[in-house]
């Protein structure tokens, strides 16, 4: 058949849709795009398919183990240290030395893999940019594939962005942050790429495509022989870290590069994982570059792990900060563990962002984050996360003032005192009150976040705070738990018990408030009603959904040529 460019028909010729050139067993169901085709090459897809085939049974097993652990916690068991791996916790071993290119990670900026933000983040003055396919990204086909294009251009050093409306061209500075990439968690499928008749594992797609296209230029221009570098999210057990280690070894073999070139920082952001920190580092000891306190998912995980423990309910979300005993214990033990094993102990994300139109409120927010960063650096953290470029100077100042010229505190802040932290310390119930305002805020934030996520934004400013998938999860599971156990809201003197009926009224009133805050027009055009339906269903479900984004994912999958699809 006679076709024009990319398979579109010449006049009078029957139309043929362009399609990706795929290897055996791979089916791409996402929209065809010329730019995406440069990422979805036959060889890159072959690599992703090989990873999927080699590791799918291990991933399935690891996810089954999560279910089994959940069953035990739901029957009353508590997470704790595993006696079978005491020898790893007590053994004297260290991880491979930190690559010189990333010895100094005092301030790391994070953000979705959106083009302008990638450039801004790399230029921000932070030491590291964590480019996010996870908490900060709504994983639509368009966002994911554009993200891969953006990262490829960033690693090549050629990325630009033309903001026509503002007549501004963005390009990279001479000096840029080192790039780390965070793929999705093990649980998320990629419904636009089928391998042997099944949706691919989301994180293997994110990792595989990025690694395939960028390992060589990255090692040359950024990693000084090491890399690429990754952040690994939401793991619950060291067996999941072992899979990543094997994936890395497989990738290194494919690329013909030395074992231990790839390096990753694991987020400790689930309650079960805090009891596995040594074991996780041990599995990844040749590929590790530390652990990070993923505080928001960690709080979410506390509620999720104790979903069937009404004696362990959380107070209002705003009261669960890093100074609560269980959070402080987690951060202290993470620092002690990392430094004993010779790697970075990274701090986490304060949710405050700059407030442009109110200098006094802005100064108050800055003071809160300075305090948070000061606590981190004094505790021994080697660096921290910033959500916004406007915060970086303040963070740099706090870390430099307290660490001087040293690139990190791995050798100087041993925190041997934290070795005595117990299971009870790590599980201690947080203190504080529960209020109607807390229920309302959870609801208002949760619905607005889901509405943004459904329309392509995975991180948003709400009420002067950064909200992303992890913070929204806290709102969702806390509402679920309060409804499930008919909790008394004791903090405001009203003594009201939470019920489905009360929650329905709150949802109605908060939807009205959202409409008045965002305006009728935006409310009508946005996906607030759909978001409300999803959020309400999840908050009132008889059993707790494992992840907010798993169910919501069905709403953003658009398979071509057939349209929306349910997994
Ligand atoms: C729990 C966790 O997982 S935390 C990690 C995941 N979360 C994140 O990474 C959140 C990242 N941060 C963000 O997405 C944003 O800062 C938000 C959504 C919180 C706030 O966004 P906005 O209100 O739009 O920011 P604002 O309008 O102040 O931005 C000003 C400028 O800074 C840029 N900017 C803001 N945040 C970032 C960032 N994280 N990285 C790069 N650039 C950024 C904007 O692109 C904008 O650039 P411009 O002036 O050239 O147009
Ligand atoms: O990913 C980070 C978190 O806090 O969650
Ligand atoms: Mg997280």
Automatic annotation (TrEMBL):
Signal peptide: none
Residues at the catalytic site: 182 (proton acceptor), 468 (proton donor)
Primary location class: other
Record domain Malate synthase C-terminal: where: 434-555
One of the GO biological process terms: glyoxylate cycle
Domain of life of the native organism: Eukaryota
Record's subcellular location: Glyoxysome
Designated name of the protein: Malate synthase
């Amino acid at each position: 058949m006679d076709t024009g460019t990319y398979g579109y028909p010449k006049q009078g010729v029957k139309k043929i849709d362009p399609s990706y050139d795929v290897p055996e067993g791979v089916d791409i169901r996402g929209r065809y795009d010329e730019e995406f085709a440069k990422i979805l090459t036959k060889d890159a897809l072959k690599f992703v398919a090989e990873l999927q085939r080699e590791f799918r049974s291990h991933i399935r097993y690891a996810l089954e183990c999560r279910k089994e652990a959940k069953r035990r916690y739901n029957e009353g068991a508590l997470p704790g240290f595993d006696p079978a791996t005491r020898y790893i916790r007590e053994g004297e071993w260290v991880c491979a030395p930190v690559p010189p290119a990333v010895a100094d990670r005092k301030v790391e900026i994070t953000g979705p893999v959106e083009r302008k933000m990638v450039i801004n983040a790399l230029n921000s003055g932070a030491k590291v940019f964590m480019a996010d396919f996870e908490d900060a990204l709504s994983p639509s086909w368009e966002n994911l594939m554009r993200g891969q294009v953006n990262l490829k251009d960033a690693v090549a050093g050629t990325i630009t962005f033309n903001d026509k409306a503002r007549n501004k061209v963005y390009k990279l500075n001479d000096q840029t942050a080192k790039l780390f990439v965070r793929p999705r968690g093990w649980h998320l499928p990629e419904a636009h790429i089928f391998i042997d008749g099944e949706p691919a594992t989301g994180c293997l797609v994110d990792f595989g495509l990025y690694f395939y296209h960028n390992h060589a230029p990255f090692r040359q221009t950024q990693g000084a022989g090491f890399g690429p570098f990754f952040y690994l999210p939401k793991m619950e057990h060291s067996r999941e870290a072992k899979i990543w280690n094997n994936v890395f070894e497989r990738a290194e073999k494919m690329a013909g590069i030395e074992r231990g070139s790839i390096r990753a920082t694991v987020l400790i952001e689930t309650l079960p994982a805090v009891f596995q920190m040594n074991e996780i580092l041990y599995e990844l000891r040749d590929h590790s570059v530390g652990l990070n306190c993923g505080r928001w998912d960690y709080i979410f995980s506390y509620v999720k792990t104790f979903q069937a423990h009404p004696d362990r309910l959380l107070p209002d979300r705003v009261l669960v900060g890093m100074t609560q005993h269980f959070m402080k214990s987690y951060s202290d033990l993470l620092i002690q563990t990392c430094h004993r094993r010779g790697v970075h102990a990274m701090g986490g994300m304060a949710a405050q962002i700059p407030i442009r139109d109110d200098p006094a409120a802005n100064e108050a927010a800055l003071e809160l984050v300075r305090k948070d960063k000061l606590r981190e650096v004094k505790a021994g953290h080697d660096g921290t996360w910033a959500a916004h470029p406007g915060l970086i100077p303040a963070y740099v100042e706090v870390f430099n003032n307290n660490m001087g010229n040293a690139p990190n505190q791995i050798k100087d802040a041993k925190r041997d005192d934290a070795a005595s932290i117990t299971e009870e310390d790590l599980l201690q119930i947080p203190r504080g009150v529960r209020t109607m305002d807390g229920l309302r805020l959870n609801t208002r934030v949760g619905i607005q976040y889901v509405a943004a996520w459904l329309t392509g934004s995975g991180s948003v400013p709400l009420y002067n705070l950064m909200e992303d998938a992890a913070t929204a999860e806290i709102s969702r599971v806390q509402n679920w738990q309060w409804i499930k156990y008919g909790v008394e809201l004791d903090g405001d003197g009203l003594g009201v018990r939470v019920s489905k009926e009360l929650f329905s009224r709150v949802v109605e009133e908060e939807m009205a408030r959202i409409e008045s805050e965002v305006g009728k027009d935006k409310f009508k055009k946005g996906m607030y009603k759909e978001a409300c339906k999803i959020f309400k269903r999840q908050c009132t479900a008889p059993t707790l959904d494992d992840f907010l984004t798993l169910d919501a994912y069905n709403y953003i999958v658009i398979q071509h040529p057939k349209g929306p699809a349910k997994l």
